[in-house]
Amino acid sequence: MFYTPGKRFEKKLLLCVLLGVSLAVCLNLIFTMIRMDRFFPAYTTKVKPWLFRFSLPVGIILYGVVTPFIEEMIFRFFFFRKLCVYVIAQAAGIASAVIFGIYHGNAVQFIYAFIFGLVLAYVYWRFENILSPILVHAAANIYVYVMYFMPEGGPFEKPGIKITVILLSGLVSVLIMRYFLNTAPEKSTLPEKPFFPKGY
Asked: Would you say residue 100 lies in a domain?
């Protein structure tokens, strides 16, 4: 299923966009605070310049439209869904997230993509609609690409503000996922059972 029209569903799609941005804000600030570049200097000197070599409009189209569609069709719609035929959804979600992380080809993006892969699998499971994880993925990618072109400095450089934003964006992400859990379809059309047991 790709799209299910209806006001309630469209509200959830907006929440998918917010989830993508809030989770990207949280993870990127955490990575900045712990200075991941100290542990993986090659990411900063080689991988990052290569990823952000495009102009802002081209990057938004490539990473905000093309890439999320292709990757979600491969890793969630085909891989995760197929795994659910053979194993429980928790195992399928973890396995697809690991493969998603490995696919990105470096340690920094592996960690980032693994966490995002778990969330994307969760969103796809709760919605049973591939447009949902595509929107989460697209919103996160667009946020990251736009922020790369923003001038450095400002209030986000202060540790206290960073920690506050991390906590708030993390809380928003958790609340949205909790809402998705509580408003999921009662009867799943996907194999196996819900990502979390009933009564969670």
From this structure: yes
